[in-house]
Amino acid sequence: xxxxxxxxxxxxxxxxxxxxxxxxxxxxxxxxxxxxxxxxxxxxxxxxxxxxxxxxxxxxxxxxxxxxxxxxxxxxxxxxxxxxxxxxxxxxxxxxxxxxxxxxxxxxxxxxxxxxxxxxxxxxxxxxxxxxxxxxxxxxxxxxxxxxxxxxxxxxxxxxxxxxxxxxxxxxxxxxxxxxxxxxxxxxxxxxxxxxxxxxxxxxxxxxxxxxxxxxxxxxxxxxxxxxxxxxxxxxxxxxxxxxxxxxxxxxxxxxxxxxxxxxxxxxxxxxxxxxxxxxxxxxxxxxxxxxxxxxxxxxxxxxxxxxxxxxxxxxxxxxxxxxxxxxxxxxxxxxxxxxxxxxxxxxxxxxxxxxxxxxxx
Length: 362
Hints:
The model has no long low-confidence stretch (mean pLDDT about 90). The chain has two domains: about 5-120, Aminopeptidase (3-Layer(aba) Sandwich); about 145-330 and about 345-350, Gcn5-related N-acetyltransferase (GNAT) (Aminopeptidase, 3-Layer(aba) Sandwich), CATH 3.40.630.30. The longest helix has 17 residues, at about 265-280. The protein has helices spanning about 15-30, 35-40, 105-115, 130-135, 155-165, 190-195, 210-215, 265-280, 295-305, 310-325, and strands at about 5-10, 50-60, 65-80, 80-95, 120-125, 140-145, 145-150, 170-180, 200-205, 225-230, 235-245, 250-260, 285-290, 335, 350. Helix 5 crosses helix 8 and helix 8 packs across helix 9 (about 295-305). With about 350 residues, it is of the alpha+beta class. The strands form two sheets. Strands 1, 2, 3, 4, 5, 6, 9, 14 and 15 form a nine-stranded mixed β-sheet that branches. It is built from ten helices and 15 strands. The two termini are about 35 Å apart.
């Protein structure tokens, strides 16, 4: 194959969308429309993504086709008042028919040298072992552990029942709403985030434009939000965004969870009250993914979520991993920080929820 083609790399142009989507379908068997591509790669709040392509040119016919893709979604992160440009590696892929014809790591090494000066940090969420080895060779560091916790809504319901019969006044309540264009009538994400972000480490921006792009303009899923409020004052103290499982009406997935001070107490409240609401709606389990690292906030979230853990689903999940993935290593998050900003960004303490790793059709 390699003797029949010449290979070269170049940057993305707007005319490449059709070819990229064809390659994406060939590898993943998932159809992606131009609208979906544009949302994920061109209309990001942080600016247009970085995309490099590898093309094969037939030496006889002169025809070319896209056989490789390496992309970074440009996301807005922050730490206190400082906003950073962060790249998330996504859709690194090579046509199976050409994988033995090129040495892909050399291409990515060249790509990274070109784009890394324009980013403060980079990260990868998941990937095969070959991709992990490649990122390590490019200076990424494995940090923390990806958690996938399954929570029981019945446990939250029981906790709420106990509160009803206790003598203490109710402190908090939950309001559930659809994530749509009118959501700012219930919660102004920009205002809430400006009051809250100082309690969080390096993490994604959560202003209106970030949340609208990720959850309202997202062409793949419909989302809902649980808003935690003080019972007497209606002051917003946090939110939990989720979507319903396409495979089971009894399961929901958490896409983001934030509380006003990042404390275990408020995580306890929003999880318990949300789970109680889910139980009454016939949703019996909640899947909560996040990256557990050295940050106090992820440790607080982990501590609170364990109180509501579903023994049944957790056991089945662990059994599945044992039977089908016996040799699976612990899954960590791959992170890289630009050396010019290493004193400002603590690579060991980020706050990462599913908001950062399930943008598309997963």
